[in-house]
């Protein structure tokens, strides 16, 4: 037992990257994992009551900040207060590292809100429980995507950029009727308004998508920022993803696309809500079906922060080939590696002590404690 250890937790089910210690202990000091082992922990250690202790979760794609900033349609909250309450929610969902997805190439009626600046302000003032990075969601066909990208791409906290195209009639919304339902629910738009918007989006794609895509990809590579493709559906989408040297494919919508992406060595990210709900809200492929084929690498909470832990813990039940350690890897080690965060994502000596203690009852996980770099934050 290392004398300088500051915190020790015993009587825990410890989830390592490749196996689970059914009854063990862990010690961390100076923000890093110092030691862990099987059986009784050192005298005086904190009793985890048999709960799971696992690495803090790593979230690559959540737009949930928007729900805190715009809690009702067109009702906007103080952006720093929104960031702080969102951050608190993430912490209690077991997320210790997040890539906040910010829209780049916004629709005319979507307000900027200064959320990137609010994240910086909250971080600089020591208001955050969780480690925050940015994920720029670049809507490629939009005429403003390059200008909006330029405002953010130089920030040191940009960790991922995704290449999105939500033009009606393809990818996620190949079924245009689903897009209508989505937008009706989101902004209360009428069908006539949607007709105008869809026509405009189709014209934008024709006019701008090709040149914008080349420029966004070139800039991401120049800044050494990992790229993600988004909603890959066809063989052509996959060919483009390979050509653009993406590291991650977010939410492929068909089995064919997922197989081809996997073959190309591209990590496949799917929504945890899709696992919990048993299917995709847009009517696309089920994440569990991909997992059964060995094609699921990373889970993301997408639009429900608490789904990340819940979805991961449910995976072994749906897919016998996935044990608890493998399921937890989809929300820890795999996303960390995909964006080059090699200092975290697993319980191993020397890694960051980003840890969570989790109790499960009624099939629902509850996060009882969260440490970020060894500091208790929730
Ligand atoms: Fe999408």
Low-pLDDT regions:
none
Number of strands: 16
Number of domain units: 2
CATH class category label of the largest domain:
Alpha Beta
CATH fold-level label of the largest domain: TIM Barrel
The number of helical segments is 13
Largest beta sheet, briefly?
8 strands, mixed
Mean pLDDT level: 94
CATH architectural name of the largest domain: Alpha-Beta Barrel
Element order: H for helix, E for strand: EEEEEEHHEHEHEHHEHEHEHHEHHHEEE
The level of helicity is 25-40%
Silhouette: globular
Structural class: alpha/beta
CATH level-4 homologous superfamily of the largest domain: Metal-dependent hydrolases
Small-molecule binders: fe (ii) ion
Radius of gyration: 21 Å
Beta strand %:
25-35%
**Spatial separation of the terminal alpha carbons:** 26 Å
Verbal overview:
The protein is an alpha/beta fold and 378 residues long. Helix 3 (115-124) links the parallel strand 7 and strand 8. It folds into two domains: 1-54 and 345-378, Urease, subunit C, domain 1 (Roll); 57-343, TIM Barrel. The strands form two sheets. Strands 1, 2, 3, 4, 5, 14, 15 and 16 form an eight-stranded mixed β-sheet that branches. The radius of gyration is 21 Å and the shape is globular. The chain has helices at residues 65-69, 79-92, 115-124, 145-152, 176-187, 191-222, 235-243, 255-263, 272-277, 287-292, 307-318, 324-329, 333-338; strands at 7-15, 20-29, 32-38, 46-47, 52-55, 57-62, 95-104, 131-139, 158-164, 227-230, 248-250, 267-271, 298-300, 355-361, 364-372, 375-376. Helix 2 (79-92) packs across helix 3 and helix 7 (235-243) runs parallel beside helix 8. The protein binds fe (ii) ion.
């Amino acid at each position: 037992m290392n004398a300088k250890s500051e915190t020790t937790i015993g009587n825990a089910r410890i989830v390592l990257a490749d196996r689970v210690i059914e009854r063990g202990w862990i010690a961390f000091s100076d923000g890093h994992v110092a030691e862990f082992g099987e059986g009784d922990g050192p005298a005086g250690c904190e009793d985890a009551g048999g709960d799971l202790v696992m690495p803090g979760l790593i979230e690559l794609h959540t737009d949930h900040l928007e729900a805190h900033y715009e809690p009702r349609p067109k009702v906007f909250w103080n952006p720093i207060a929104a960031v702080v309450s969102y951050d608190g929610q993430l912490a209690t969902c077991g997320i210790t590292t997040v890539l906040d997805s910010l829209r780049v190439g916004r629709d005319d009626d979507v307000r900027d809100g200064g959320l990137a600046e609010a994240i910086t302000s909250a971080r600089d003032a020591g208001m955050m429980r969780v480690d925050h990075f940015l994920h720029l969601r670049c809507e490629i066909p939009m005429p403003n995507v390059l200008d909006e990208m330029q405002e953010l791409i130089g920030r040191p906290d940009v960790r991922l950029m995704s290449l999105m195209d939500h033009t009606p009639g393809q990818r996620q919304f190949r079924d245009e009727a689903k897009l209508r339902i989505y937008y009706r629910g989101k902004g209360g738009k009428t069908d006539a308004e949607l007709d105008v918007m869809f026509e405009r989006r189709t014209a934008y794609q024709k006019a701008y998508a090709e040149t914008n895509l080349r420029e966004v990809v070139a800039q991401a590579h120049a800044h050494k920022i990992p790229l993600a493709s988004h909603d890959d559906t066809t063989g052509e989408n996959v060919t483009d993803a390979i050509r653009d040297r993406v590291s991650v494919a977010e939410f492929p919508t068909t089995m064919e696309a997922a197989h081809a992406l996997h073959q190309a060595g591209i990590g496949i990210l799917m929504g945890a809500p899709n696992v919990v709900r048993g299917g995709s809200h847009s009517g696309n492929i089920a994440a569990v079906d991909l997992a059964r084929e060995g094609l699921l690498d990373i889970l993301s909470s997408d639009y429900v922060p608490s789904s990340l832990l819940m979805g991961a813990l449910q995976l072994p039940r749906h897919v016998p080939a996935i044990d608890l350690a493998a399921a937890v890897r989809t929300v820890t080690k795999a996303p960390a590696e995909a964006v080059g965060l090699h200092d975290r994502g697993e319980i191993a000596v020397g890694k960051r002590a980003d840890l969570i203690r989790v109790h499960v009852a009624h099939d629902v996980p509850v996060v009882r404690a969260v440490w970020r770099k060894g500091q208790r934050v929730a």
